[in-house]
Specification:
The protein is built from 6 helices and 11 strands. The two termini are 42 Å apart. It is α/β, with parallel strands linked by helices.
Length: 283
């Protein structure tokens, strides 16, 4: 079917039964259904006449936010998709339920690339703002949470204003601190994972998996730009991929029922909050 296929993708996502599922979906969805595969098609959507919308911008995952401008056919940001989805869904006078996932934050962490993870986090924050701006907080519950955390750590004592991705500096205008081995270190590191990798300006976090410079021991970072998109932080325990971690994650909310989001809540509470606001389950 008509969807972007990078030359290096091989047979990823290809069907062997000759079915064209988007065409089948369009045929079953009736008038007002729209299928888009690129930025131009996305921008052309008439949200007032569209009743159902399917966007497939890649055969697999969408691009990392830092790498999005390199997409072959162009793809919208997560904030743009959030806003467009609400513009279509709010045509329903009975209200709507919308789930937005910024899954590439997770992928960048697994690749040990804090730059990519934080860039996608910023993009997700813009999506949350887009949702808030496009709705009425008096009648719309917005919940922001996660399903797990990662073993990325942020070291203490670093002076205020020091770049989060930079080398650890303890005093304003000072030189990078040195560890017991005489080498500088970064504020952000990973407990485990691929470990050090310097790919410079590379914006695809996944490129780190093929890095021949990956090391299981400390590296002299003195002459290395640790703020570059392609820098992958050092890791204490060398693994083929960074792992999830086990601490509690946070939940934040605004709108009807958001007052129940206080302190630590059981994960099942998230559903009850949504059900209370929208009556998802008929009694």
């Amino acid at each position: 079917f008509n969807v972007e296929k990078p030359a290096e993708a091989g047979e990823e996502g290809d069907r062997t039964d000759s079915r064209d599922l988007p065409s089948e979906w369009l045929a079953k969805s009736g008038d007002g259904a729209v299928y888009v595969v690129d930025q131009a098609g996305f921008d052309a959507i008439d949200t007032e006449t569209t009743t159902k919308l399917l966007g497939l911008f890649n055969e697999s995952h969408m691009q990392y936010e830092a790498d999005r401008t390199n997409d072959i056919a162009g793809e919208p940001s997560i904030a743009e998709m959030t806003e467009k989805a609400i513009q279509v869904l709010d045509n329903n006078d009975n209200g709507f339920f919308l789930m937005v996932e910024s899954g590439r934050i997770d992928h960048a962490h697994h690749a040990g690339n804090a730059y990519g993870a934080l860039a996608d986090t910023v993009a997700f924050a813009a999506a949350v703002k887009a949702a808030y701006d496009a709705t009425n907080p008096d009648d719309t519950l917005i919940i922001v949470t996660a399903d797990h955390s990662h073993v990325m750590t942020i070291g203490g004592y670093v002076t205020r204003g020091n770049p989060i991705l930079g080398k650890a500096v303890y005093s304003e205008g000072g030189s990078p601190e040195l560890a017991k081995d005489g080498l500088p270190f970064t504020t952000v590191n990973y407990n485990n994972g691929i470990g050090f990798c310097d790919l410079g300006a590379e914006t695809d976090s996944d490129a780190g998996y093929g890095c021949e410079n990956a090391a299981g021991s400390r590296t002299d970072l003195t002459a290395i730009d640790t703020e570059a998109p392609g820098f992958h932080q050092e890791a204490l325990i060398p693994l083929s991929s960074e792992t999830h971690s086990g601490e509690d994650i946070t939940i934040h909310a605004t709108g009807p029922g958001s007052s129940f989001v206080r302190g630590t809540v059981e994960q099942s509470m998230v559903f009850h909050l949504m059900n209370n606001a929208r009556n998802l389950v008929a009694e």
